[in-house]
């Protein structure tokens, strides 16, 4: 796909597009088949030791890991250094579910024209933003910071 196609698909340009396309461990693609065909593709990827996930605009082919794969390592590293660890996850698409479910505070952002993201096993602290991006991200971040400040105050109070 040429740069103009990448810009149109990802909604990014310039340095933002360059960062999004600078991938050494995954490949982005658009899937134009049926849900059944997508299921077949996912099974074939698993058989090959890979993973196919879709976000809001594109799919990605990568090694079998997702956005939550490093949560335990992050928690252990932070705790080993003697600090408190509160993981806040932000997401708006199906490929964010695992990461959100494994966060201490999950911030779910609605997407225009899409069904609200449902977390089968949400964490205790769940924020459902009322606005779409970018204001929804800001709304959720402010609520998450408020929750963290309250939690910190309770522990120190």
Global geometry: globular
> Structural class of the secondary elements?
alpha/beta
Unreliable parts:
none
What is the spatial order of strands in the main beta sheet?
1-3-2
Order of helices and strands: HHEHEEHEHEEH
- Number of DSSP helices? 6
Mean pLDDT: 89
Tell me the radius of gyration. 18 Å
DSSP strand (E) fraction? 15-25%
> Biggest sheet: strands, sense, closure?
3 strands, antiparallel
The first-to-last residue Cα distance is 56 Å
Please report the total strand number as a whole number.
6
Q: What percent of the residues sit in helical stretches (DSSP H or I)? A: 40-55%
Task: Provide a short characterization of the protein structure.
The protein is an alpha/beta fold and 157 residues long.
Question: What does this 3D model show about the protein?
Answer:
- The protein is of the alpha/beta class and 157 residues long.
- It is 42% helix and 15% strand.
- It has helices at residues 3-10, 14-21, 35-47, 71-80, 97-101, 135-156, and strands at residues 26-29, 51-54, 59-62, 88-91, 105-108, 125-128.
- A hairpin with a 4-residue loop joins strand 2 and strand 3 (59-62).
- The longest helix is centred in the C-terminal third of the chain and has 22 residues, at 135-156.
- The protein starts with a helix and ends with a helix.
- The mean pLDDT is 89.
Name the descriptors:
three-stranded antiparallel β-sheet; globular; single chain; three-stranded parallel β-sheet; 6 strands; alpha/beta; 157 residues; 6 helices
Task: Give the SSE layout.
Elements: H1 3-10, H2 14-21, E1 26-29, H3 35-47, E2 51-54, E3 59-62, H4 71-80, E4 88-91, H5 97-101, E5 105-108, E6 125-128, H6 135-156
Parallel strand pairs: 4-5, 5-6
Antiparallel strand pairs: 1-3, 2-3
